[in-house]
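Writing this down once: the sequence line spells out the residues, with the fold written below as integer tokens. I am pasting one below:
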Amino acid sequence: MGSINSRLARLEEESGGICQECGFPPDSEGTIVLIDEERPEESFQGDRNERCKRCGRALWYVVEVVYGPPAGDEGGRGA
């Protein structure tokens, strides 16, 4: 069993630490996806907390698009 583990470790070093399952490098934060409150049908529909079964890295980097009053309007954060 030790030789299999050492071979796997060598393969991972040679590939730069890229996971063979998800294809992400160690510093990846996942694929960027959007959740748009005004158009939910066009938004990401998957599990935002999904992780690679092999390496545990997050598969998705979720950005939530939130609409508010334009900058400068009452209650806005403009100048």
Observations:
- The chain has a mean pLDDT of 81.
- The chain has one domain: 19-79.
- The radius of gyration is 20 Å.
